[in-house]
Design a protein that fits this description.
The chain is of the alpha+beta class. The protein is 24% helix and 35% strand. Strands 2, 3, 4, 5, 7, 8 and 9 form a 7-stranded antiparallel β-sheet that branches. A two-stranded parallel sheet has the order 1-6. Helix 3 crosses helix 6. The longest helix has 18 residues. The chain is globular.
């Protein structure tokens, strides 16, 4: 247990460095590397094409929901984590068959690894360019019902949304404002047409308008 502050401090320092210099810095941080994309997840068109629902959800609590024993390496277990989201808005719902989203849902987020050295210390998994989804923070999420679980389309489908503002809140284990998020995501790139860039700093009405337009319902 004595090693926990050291591990946490090193991880935090690396993540902060990544936020300040852009995502290649994050790629060098242990546990904060390349994101997993199940489906295209960057643009409004990606979201309406592949997501079953888009929600604004405040993470209220988390729990371990499965573990895998690892045969070698620094970690003894890989733990799955389920996060309960308080659904505050539903800007989009597809016509595909999926469960009705009520006032809350369980989201499968990034989990933990347990150190082999003591068998108890949990190290949070962090993925470059994506929030971890931490209780106490709010997110905009494009979700798909897959294998009887709600999962995100990919790293572009989980966006910080504290204070009803795209790009404000928890990101890769750190809390950032819209300026810090923009710098870390390098949203100034001309080739970036992601929801994160186009709606930076905006709220639910702008999200709804972008999704309606992408689905052919808006002007």
């Amino acid at each position: 247990m004595a090693g926990r502050p050291v591990v946490a401090a090193l991880a935090a320092a690396g993540v902060v460095g990544g936020v300040l210099i852009g995502w290649p810095g994050l790629d060098t941080v242990n546990g904060c590397g390349l994101a997993v994309n199940r489906y295209p997840s960057e643009t409004a068109k990606d979201w309406v094409r592949y997501a079953d629902v888009v929600v604004v959800g405040r993470a209220v609590q988390e729990r371990e929901s499965g573990r895998e024993e690892l045969s070698a390496g620094a970690y003894r277990y890989q733990l799955e984590r389920t996060v309960e989201l308080d659904v505050q808005a539903k800007p989009f719902s597809s016509t595909r068959s999926h469960p009705t989203v009520g006032s809350s849902l369980d989201y499968i987020g990034l989990g933990w690894k347990v150190l082999r050295s003591d068998g108890t210390t949990r190290i949070p998994d962090l993925t470059g360019d994506a929030p971890r989804v931490v209780p106490g923070h709010t997110y905009l999420l494009a979700l798909r019902w897959e294998d009887d679980r709600w999962v995100a389309l990919g790293e572009g489908a989980v966006v910080p949304f504290d204070g009803n503002a795209v790009g404000q809140g928890e990101w890769c284990g750190q809390v950032v404002d819209t300026d810090g998020f923009a710098q870390g995501e390098r949203t100034g790139r001309e080739s970036d047409h992601s929801m994160e860039k186009t709606l930076l700093g905006q709220g639910v009405p702008a999200v709804e308008q972008a999704l309606e337009k992408a689905s052919g319902k808006g002007s």
